[in-house]
Amino acid sequence: VSTLKADVAVVGAGPAGMAAARAAADLGAQVVLIDAGRSMGGQIYRQPATAGAAAVTPVGPKMPQRLRQLEGQAGVRHLPGVVVWQAIRGAGGELQGSGAHGGFGGGGADGRGGAQGEFQLWLTPAGGGGAAGSDGAAGSSVATGTGVDGVMVTAVVVATGANEVVVPFPGWELPGVSTVGAAQALLKGQGVTAGRRVLVAGSGPLLLPAAAGLAEAGVRVVGVLEANPVTVGTLTAAARAALFTRKAREAAGYARIFGRHRVPVKAGYAVVAAHGEGRVTEATVSRVDRDWRPVPGTGRRLAVDAVHASFGFSPALELPRALGCADRPQPGRPVAAVWCDDDQATSVPGVFAAGEATGVAGADVAELEGYLAGWASARYVAKSRPATFHRGKGLRAGGGELDLSRLRAALTRARRFARGLDGLYPWRSGWLDWPEADTIACRCEEVPWAAIGAAVAAGARDVRAVKGVTRCGMGYCQGRMCGPAVQQAVAAATGRGLAAVGDLSSRPVLTPVPLGTIAGRDQSVGR
Amino acid sequence: VRTETLAFTFDGRPMTAEAGQTVGAALLAAGVRSWRRTRGGERPRGLFCGIGACFDCLVDVNEVRAVRACLVLVSEGDEVRTSASVGVDQ
Q1: Range scoring the smallest mean pLDDT among A108-112, A220-224, A370-374, A420-424
Q2: Peptide bond into A509 cis (omega under 30)
Q3: Where do runs of H (alpha helix) occur along A2-152?
Q4: N or C: where does chain B have the smaller number of CB atoms within 10 Å of the terminal CB?
Q5: Which residues numbered 414-473 in A keep a CB inside 8 Å of some CB on B?
Q6: Under an 8 A CB cutoff, do B48 and A50 touch?
Q7: What is the pTM of this model?
Q8: Confidence of residue A213 (pLDDT cuts 50, 70, 90)
Q9: Which pLDDT band, with edges at 50, 70 and 90, does A103 fall under?
Q10: What is residue A95's predicted lDDT score, i.e. its pLDDT?
Q11: Closest listed residue to residue A269, CA positions, set A484, A439, A87, A431
């Protein structure tokens, strides 16, 4: 167990993090790429982990070749299967006696003397249980084998992606009800489906590849219900209008799959309840109005053995907030993002951000922001170590040189399309009519929906107060699941705005860890 | 990608998993939907977010309690058990 020193820590190995690692390493920085997954790619480019998954018909965007080339790239040390549980600014040079060592060996450590360890990130295995690199947890499967339980770096690139946004409805805690992302992770990574008669519902572009993948895998998809009035045709037209022919082809491909498997795809519909004893066996679906309120008299029950529902994404802000990075509000949505300047620099010197953490915009924007963030982080590191910054070399992507002006132009175009797409999927409040008094609001602490209104009636005026009274957001997930819904519920109950009631701000630790992990850290590091 | 089959048990019942498979995926593939009881209402829970964020899929593996089934891989001979009353004094 030891601490690894490097120039840049990139946290997250999805498209943003992979691009950032590549760009920073191309420019001479020594990069450590930290990721919860065992393979690079993140959620969008999740790689098959089993033979069964490898045999699944691939649906949706595939990892571009230029990112695949990151595997084994010189100057990038990949730490798979670990997550950051504590992030500390400063404390440079405090690692005497803790076993700190350079991870690159030989000539790779040249010129490191000038770089200060400005940030510490402490790591734990992604599955939970035991210290990173230890062998004791859950057999050998939790052990990461990296032997590294912390990194000390000059710059950090936050590429932590996003969490799926879910909203409560009666029965949503039943086994068999899960997110749309869960369907994707199970199918693409594991070659497994959660059921044989499946309903896919919610809002956002993710519904389409997820449902198409399930249909191609032989699952009976009994419905794809988009709450907003957006059809596959709307998407195709929007992509064509923005001259994103690749995206237009992608949407048309989903439409063909739905046609071939006779999958009913409906806009302006939602799953408003799940039913079953100990597991889901039926779902109530309903037409919803423009605000997602159920249209009376349109509800009907469908027999299902699995429901996948989610409503877009919420930037994962645990790490940037721990580092002190300022937020950027997302108007009209109960989520926030990391604020960045045009070079992907956050409000904290030495911390850069890219991808969904800076605002949900999809894989194309994420990758382009990643190259910029990687470049900017290498430039930042080079201030203390100018000799090793490959000034004349430029950024390489896809084997060729990619200059900054072309990169920025591509980013502007990709962001324009992302904004257009975002506009098709507004966040509405009519779902507030779906839960009943005893519907679980906070899954971890099993807080009933009525408790939120009761807390507000008793005087709570913001999310923080409601959390204190009800325990919403105090459980294992620390509000990652109920946060957006609780924020909107409190805003509605108090008659205040989403920004005014605040959110379930993340606080240490960044992910639950066993006490042994905390106690087991070298005392010379902790302060 | 490996193709071997691993043997493990779930609450004493013999099960198999593909190499590289998570505990959660192996259980779902075997038709098991739930492997945790909540500490408040002792309600059944299973896999929800599928990517390690929600902690609904907590399961006990060998001597370790409350690991996330969606992330932890099956190892040959693992004894997997329903995770009950997490956080409650035994």
Answers
A1: A108-112
A2: yes
A3: 15-26, 51-54, 65-68
A4: C
A5: 443-446
A6: no
A7: 0.91
A8: very high
A9: very low
A10: 36
A11: A431
User: ipTM of the assembly?
Assistant: 0.94
**Mutate which: B73, B75, B83, vs A, most A CBs within 10 A:** B73
3-state secondary structure A373-426: HHHHHHHHHHCCCHHHCCCCCCEEECCEEECHHHHHHHHHHHHHHHHHHHHHCC
Q: How many residues does chain A have?
A: 527
**Residue that has been written with the tokens 């529902």 in this structure:** A309
Taking CB atoms and an 8 Å limit, are A139 and B62 in contact across chains? yes
Q: How far apart are the first and last CA of chain B?
A: 41
User: Whose CA is closest to A58, among A70, A75, A41?
Assistant: A41
Q: Do B21 and A50 touch (CB under 8 A)?
A: yes
Contact A44, A64 (CB under 8 A): no
C-alpha distance from residue A506 to each of A336, A438, A463, A496, B80 (Å): 12, 27, 12, 22, 32
Q: Find all residues with CB under 8 Å of A207, minimum gap 6, and list them.
A: A180, A200, A201, A224, A226
Distance between A361 CA and the closest CA of chain B, angstroms:
20
Average of pLDDT values for A252-274? 97
Residue A167's identity, in one-letter code, is: V
Give the closest of A186, A278, A445 to B28, CB-based. A186
Give residue A402's pLDDT band: very low, low, confident or very high (50, 70, 90).
Answer: low
Residue with tokens 């500390």: A88
Q: Average of pLDDT values for A47-68?
A: 92
Report the DSSP beta bridge partners of residue A3.
A150
